[in-house]
Design goal:
By secondary structure, chain A is an all-alpha fold. In chain A, 76% of the residues lie in helices and 0% in strands. Chain B is of the alpha/beta class. In chain B, helix 7 packs across helix 8 and helix 7 packs across helix 14. Classes of the chains: A mainly alpha, B alpha/beta. Chains A and B meet through helix 5, helix 13, helix 16, helix 18 and helix 22 of A and helix 1, helix 2, helix 3, strand 2 and helix 4 of B.
C-alpha cells in the first residue's frame, strides 16, 4: 500500500545518477565472467553439458533450500519468543541467539568438526568408538545455519518490535488461540522481513565456499574453486559462476513473489506489546532457546576455548590485525550504506520497472564466491586502474560488491515503515528530492541505516577469499591470520584471532539485537 | 543508537592507534613508487608459517626489503594470469610445478648457473622456473593400528579389499593430482584407470587437503593416507604424541614420486635483479640447509651434498625409486588427469 502510494512520482535524476553508477560498478564481476566464459571457444559450454553439472545444481539447490528453511524456522520462532512473550530472561536470549553472526562460517565448520567430528571433543567425552557421520549434507547444513539464521532473527525481531501490537491484541480479544493469532495476524505482517532475511541466508549459502569444502559437500562453489585450483582454467570456472548468477536470479524472483503477497497496513504505533503469557509452555520454550544457543554459540565457543587452552603458551595477541580488520570493515560499512541509500530510496519511493531492476541488479555480486569477485577486480584494476590496484580502497570496494544487499536490507526495511507523506510535505515546502531525502528521510531511518552498516561491518570482518587476493601487501586481518594458521593445521594458535574477531564484533550484534523499526510516532 | 555511535567511535580510535604498522605496510604495497632502491615483491603460495624465516634472512643479508603476498598457489597463478603484464610481482614462489607451469609464458628464463644448482629433473625444461625444495609422496599410517611392514610396499596393493574404508585421499589437491599424473606417465593410462576404479571400490575417504588426511590418520578415522612426507611434521607440531609415521615406498613405484616447490621470475618484473638474486639465494647452501636443520616441515634440499633431516631418505635414494617423469610436463598433462579423475568419480 505504501509503495503504491509512493510510486507516483518520477524518479529524480539526483538519485538515479548515483544509483546507476553504483549498479554499473557492482556489475563488474558479471562483465568479467561473460568475458571469460566467452573467451574459451566452445570449451566453457561443454562444462554445462556434463552430467554432473546438473547434479551440482541439484545439490546446491537442496542445500540452499534446507539452510533457508531451518534458518527461517529458528529465526522467526526465537524472534517471537524473545519479543512477544514473557519468556524468562528474554533480553539475554535475544542477544545470545544473535551472537553466532560474528562467527565466520569456516570457523563454525572447524568448530563443529572439532566437537562432533571423528575423535572430536564429544567422542572423547563419551568414550564411544564412532559417532554418526558429520561430513556431507547435514554438517554443511548445520554450519551454514549457524552463521546465517541470525540474519532472519535480527530482521524479524526488529520488525516485531516496530509492529503495532493492537492487531494481535484484537485477534486475541476475538478469542483466537495464540497460535492462530501468530499464524493469521503476526506472520503475514512479518512477510517482508522474513523475505529479506531468507534472501540474505539463501544468497550467503550460494556463495559460501569454506563450509562446503570443509564438510566435503559438492556444491557449485566447490566445483568453481576446483577449476581454478587444479586446471588453472578460468573458462569453465566462469561458466559455473554464471550458473550461480542464474540461481541468484531465481532466488530473487522467488523472494519478490513472496513479497508481492504482502498485505501491508500502515505501521500504526509501536508501543510495548503486552507479552503473551507462555504458561506451561514456558519450560519447553526455555529448553528450545537453550538448545539453539547451546548448539550454535556454546559449542563453537567451547571448542575455541579448548584449542586456546592448548596453545596459550604460543599465543600472540593480533592487535595490528584487529585494527586492520576494523579499519577496512568500518570503511566498507560506510561506503556500503552511502552506495545503497539512493538505490533503496528509488526502489521504495519511486518504484518503477527501472528502479526495481536497479535494486535487483545490485544483488549480482552477492551470491558469487569471493574468489570470483577477487579475480574480476584483479583483472579490471591491474589492467585499467593500476593506481587503485592492491590498495585499501579496492579492498573496501570488493566488500561493497559482496555485501551491499545487507545494507539494502537494513535501509529498505526501515524505509517501508516511514510514511512517505512526511517527505512529500518537505517536497511541498520546496525541498528537492535529494535534499528532502537527506534532511527528512535519512534522519527518520537512521536506525535502519546503522543496522545495514553493522551487518556489512560484521560480514567484512569475516571475509576471507577476496581479502587474501586484494589486500595491500602486508595488510593482515584477523581473517587472513586465521587462514594462515589453520592452513598449516595450527588450530590452537588460530583460536586466538578467532576469539578476538568474535569479541570485537560482539558489541555490534548487541546493538543490532536491541534496535527496532522506526515509526513516525516515535520521532514525531 | 547512541551506543552504536560510541561503538563506531571506539572502533575507529582503536584502529587508529593500532593501525600504524598496518598503514605503512599498506603504503608499501599500494603504490608502485619504490621507497628503497632495492625492493622486491614476491607472490608466495608457500605458507607464511613455513617460509617467513627465509624472507627475513634475505632482507638481513642483502638489505633489500621484501613485500610478500601470501595466498594459495593456484589462486596466485590465476591472479598473475589476470594481472598480465601489469603484475606487481617480481617472483612467484609456488607450492607445485603445476602452478608455475600455468603461468610459465609470463616467466623469464633463469640464468644457467642458477638452474644448474639442481638436477634437471627438478626444474622446468625451458629454464623458466627451478625447484627449491623437494617433497616425497608417502603412505602415512597409524602406528596403533599398523606396523610399517603391514603397510603396502606399493600403492597398487591398496586395491586389496582389506583396505576398505581405511584409505584417505585428497583428490582435489594438486599433490594427489601430480601423483596420478606420474602414475599415468609411468604405468600407463589403462593401469591408472583400473587402479582408480579399484581404489574407489574400497570406499576411500576424501579430504580437502593433505593436513586433514594426516590428522584423520592420527585420530584413527582412517589407517593409511596418500600424502606428501612433510605434513607429518606439521601435525606433530600440534599433536606431539600423534601415533603416525611415514612409509617411503621401497620399490619402483608412482607412490614414490618426488615433486618440488619452486620459484620463477616474472618477465614483467620491475626489480629483475633483486628477483634473480632472491631465487639464487633460495638455492644457496645455507638456505638449502634450512630445510634440514630449522624448518618445521623437513622438506628435502635439492642441492647436491646437503642431506635431508634425519629420518627422511636422501634425494638419490628417493629418485632411484620414483617414476621417471618430467615435472615440467605436468602442467600440460593435468587436463587429462583431471578428466580421468572426473570420469572415475574422484572429483565432481
Amino acid at each position: 500500500m505504501i509503495r503504491r502510494r509512493a510510486g507516483r512520482g518520477r524518479a529524480p535524476l539526483s538519485l538515479l545518477l548515483p544509483a546507476c553508477l553504483t549498479v554499473a560498478l557492482l556489475l563488474l564481476p558479471l562483465a568479467y565472467l561473460v568475458v571469460r566464459a566467452s573467451g574459451g571457444g566452445g570449451r566453457g559450454w561443454r562444462v554445462l553439458t556434463r552430467s554432473n553439472t546438473l547434479e551440482l545444481i541439484w545439490s546446491t539447490g537442496l542445500l540452499v533450500a534446507g539452510v533457508t528453511l531451518v534458518s527461517v524456522t529458528i529465526g522467526v520462532s526465537v524472534a517471537w519468543l524473545t519479543t512477544r512473550t514473557d519468556l524468562p530472561g528474554r533480553r539475554f536470549w535475544a542477544v545470545a541467539a544473535a551472537l553466532p553472526l560474528v562467527i565466520p562460517s569456516y570457523v563454525a565448520a572447524f568448530c563443529l568438526l572439532g566437537a562432533f567430528g571423528p575423535r572430536g571433543l564429544l567422542q572423547q567425552l563419551l568414550g564411544v568408538e564412532r559417532l554418526p557421520e558429520i561430513y556431507g549434507y547435514w554438517g554443511a547444513l548445520a554450519a551454514l545455519t549457524l552463521s546465517t539464521y541470525p540474519y532472519v532473527l535480527l530482521l524479524v525481531s526488529a520488525a516485531l518490535r516496530g509492529l503495532d501490537p493492537a492487531l494481535e491484541e484484537a485477534g486475541r480479544g476475538l478469542g483466537r488461540t495464540p497460535l492462530e493469532v501468530f499464524r493469521r495476524v503476526t506472520l503475514p505482517a512479518l512477510r517482508p522481513s522474513i523475505g529479506a532475511g531468507a534472501l540474505l541466508v539463501a544468497l550467503y549459502t550460494l556463495s559460501d565456499f569454506g563450509v562446503v569444502s570443509l564438510m566435503r559437500y559438492d556444491a557449485l562453489t566447490r566445483a568453481i574453486y576446483l577449476q581454478y585450483k587444479s586446471l588453472f582454467d578460468r573458462t569453465p570456472a566462469a561458466v559455473l559462476a554464471l550458473v550461480l548468477v542464474v540461481l541468484t536470479a531465481l532466488v530473487l524472483w522467488l523472494e519478490s513473489r513472496w513479497r508481492r503477497r504482502v498485505s501491508r497496513s500502515g505501521p500504526g504505533t509501536a508501543r510495548q506489546a503486552r507479552p503473551q503469557r507462555l504458561g506451561r509452555w514456558r519450560w519447553p520454550a526455555l529448553a528450545y532457546c537453550s538448545a539453539v544457543v547451546g548448539a550454535f554459540l556454546a559449542v563453537p565457543a567451547t571448542v575455541l576455548v579448548y584449542w586456546l587452552a592448548r596453545g596459550l603458551d604460543r599465543a600472540e595477541m593480533p592487535w595490528r590485525e584487529a585494527a586492520n580488520s576494523m579499519t577496512a570493515s568500518s570503511l566498507a560499512a560506510l561506503a556500503a550504506v552511502v552506495a545503497a541509500l539512493p538505490i533503496a530510496l528509488l526502489a521504495t519511493r519511486y518504484r518503477t520497472r527501472l528502479t526495481a531492476l536497479l535494486e535487483r541488479l545490485s544483488f549480482a555480486g552477492n551470491a558469487l564466491p569471493g574468489i570470483v569477485i577477487a579475480l574480476s577486480l584483479v583483472f579490471f584494476a591491474a589492467n585499467y586502474a593500476s593506481r587503485l590496484y592492491q590498495t585499501l580502497a579496492l579492498l573496501v570496494f570488493a566488500y561493497v560488491v559482496r555485501f551491499l544487499p545487507q545494507a539494502l536490507a537494513g535501509i529498505e526495511s526501515a524505509l517501508a515503515s516511514v510514511n512517505p507523506r512526511v517527505e512529500e510535505a518537505a517536497r511541498a515546502l520546496g525541498r528537492g528530492p535529494a535534499a528532502a531525502a537527506l534532511t527528512v528521510t535519512v534522519p527518520l531511518i537512521r536506525s535502519g541505516i546503522f543496522a545495514g552498516a553493522a551487518l556489512v561491518f560484521l560480514s567484512a570482518m569475516k571475509e576471507l577469499p577476496a581479502t587474501l587476493l586484494l589486500r595491500p601487501i602486508g595488510f593482515e586481518t584477523l581473517a587472513t591470520e586465521i587462514w594462515k594458521l589453520t592452513s598449516v593445521g595450527s588450530y590452537s594458535r588460530a583460536a586466538v584471532p578467532a576469539l578476538v574477531l568474535i569479541v570485537v564484533s560482539a558489541p555490534f550484534v548487541y546493538f543490532l539485537s536491541s534496535r527496532h523499526e522506526p515509526t513516525e510516532v516515535e520521532h514525531g | 543508537m547512541k551506543r552504536l555511535v560510541v561503538l563506531l567511535a571506539a572502533a575507529v580510535a582503536l584502529a587508529g592507534c593500532g593501525g600504524d604498522d598496518g598503514g605503512s605496510a599498506a603504503e608499501n604495497g599500494g603504490t608502485t613508487g619504490a621507497k628503497q632502491s632495492g625492493e622486491l615483491v614476491v607472490y608466495s603460495g608457500r605458507e607464511e608459517e613455513l617460509v617467513e624465516p627465509l624472507f627475513e634472512r634475505f632482507e638481513d643479508e642483502t638489505g633489500i626489503h621484501v613485500d610478500v603476498r601470501y595466498a594459495d598457489s593456484a589462486e596466485l597463478a590465476a591472479t598473475i594470469a589476470e594481472e598480465g603484464d601489469n603484475s606487481p610481482a617480481d617472483v612467484f614462489f609456488a607450492q607445485d610445478p603445476g602452478s608455475l607451469g600455468a603461468v610459465d609464458d609470463q616467466l623469464t628464463t633463469l640464468p644457467q648457473a642458477v638452474l644448474d644448482r639442481v638436477d634437471e629433473k627438478f626444474r622446468d625444461s625451458g629454464g623458466r622456473w627451478v625447484g627449491t625444495s623437494g617433497r616425497a609422496r608417502v603412505i602415512v599410517f597409524n602406528t596403533d593400528d599398523l606396523t610399517a611392514d603391514e603397510v603396502p610396499d606399493s600403492v597398487f596393493d591398496l586395491t586389496d579389499p582389506k583396505w576398505k574404508g581405511k584409505i584417505g585421499i585428497a583428490p582435489t589437491n594438486a599433490s594427489f593430482q601430480a601423483f596420478v599424473t606420474a602414475m599415468r606417465l609411468d604405468a600407463g593410462e589403462e593401469r591408472t584407470r583400473q587402479w582408480l576404479e579399484d581404489v574407489m571400490a574400497n570406499d576411500p575417504k576424501f579430504y580437502e587437503k593433505n593436513t586433514p588426511v594426516v590428522e584423520a590418520v592420527a585420530s584413527g578415522e582412517i589407517q593409511v593416507g596418500l600424502v606428501n612426507h612433510y605434513y607429518l611434521y606439521l601435525v606433530e607440531q600440534e599433536q606431539p604424541d600423534a601415533p603416525i609415521e611415514n612409509k617411503y615406498l621401497p620399490g619402483h613405484d608412482p607412490g614414490a614420486l618426488v615433486s618440488v616447490a619452486g620459484a620463477g621470475v616474472l618477465a614483467s618484473a620491475k626489480h629483475p635483479d633483486a628477483a634473480e638474486r632472491f631465487v639464487e639465494f633460495l638455492l644457496a647452501d645455507e638456505q638449502q640447509r634450512f630445510y634440514t636443520e630449522e624448518a618445521e616441515e623437513a622438506e628435502i634440499p635439492l642441492v647436491d651434498g646437503i642431506p635431508p633431516k634425519e629420518g627422511v631418505p636422501t634425494l638419490d635414494e628417493l629418485a632411484s625409486r620414483g617414476p621417471a617423469v618430467d615435472l615440467s610436463s605436468f602442467g600440460g598433462e593435468l587436463e587429462r588427469t583431471l578428466e580421468l579423475l572426473n570420469e572415475t568419480g574422484y572429483t565432481s
